[in-house]
Amino acid sequence: MTIQLTKGDITKIKVDAIVNAANSSLLGGGGVDGAIHRAGGPKILEECIQIRNRQGGCKTGEAVITTGGNLPAKYVIHTVGPVWHGGDKREEELLHNAYTNSLRLAEENNVTSIAFPNISTGIYGFPKQRAAEIAVKAVSDFKASTLKQVFFVCFDDENYNIYKLLGVEAV
Ligand code: AR6
């Protein structure tokens, strides 16, 4: 499995699955969540509402899957990263879980390529350097079978440079 870095808008990436940094309500929001629902159209929200009706949303660190609506990606995996409260509220473990549970769900759906945004590092305020270290470790430690390509898609220069310095190959 390759792990690579790109810069830009995750809604434009042609992979089997893109990951959304959602919130527990699954009803949309700002940041990358807003961008994905805007670009993907109403079908994604309809599916999120069905999941919410079935299981009452998505807990922090967990993940759910919908189709990609109008996106180039086939699926959207919605995960919920932790809100940063200073570091003693299991934030690191929960962020690790968000990555690992997204990868697991991808494999259950025979996904071969997946793209992650920098979960929790926007509105949720997780320190970017530490978040990148956790993301790279969670993906590197994952025992993949169907997954062949993982992309970290950085929207801002600061995150992009952090991943580059961690040694992730830029493409
Ligand atoms: N493509 C890729 N990355 C993006 C894009 C995009 N189009 N837009 C923003 N980012 P955030 P969080 C980056 O705030 O911190 C929402 O309201 C952004 O630069 O989207 O996990 C949800 O509903 C940042 O690096 O997510 C939740 O309530 C990263 O995506 C809450 O925000 C994550 O920033 C989740 O907060």
UniProtKB/TrEMBL annotation:
Ranges annotated as spanning the membrane: none
Residue ranges of every copy of the Macro domain listed in the record: 1-171
InterPro entries assigned to the protein according to its UniProt record, in alphabetical order: Macro_dom (IPR002589), Macro_dom-like (IPR043472)
PANTHER family, per the entry: GANGLIOSIDE INDUCED DIFFERENTIATION ASSOCIATED PROTEIN 2-RELATED, MACRO DOMAIN-CONTAINING PROTEIN
Protein name, entry field: O-acetyl-ADP-ribose deacetylase
Organism this protein belongs to: Danxiaibacter flavus
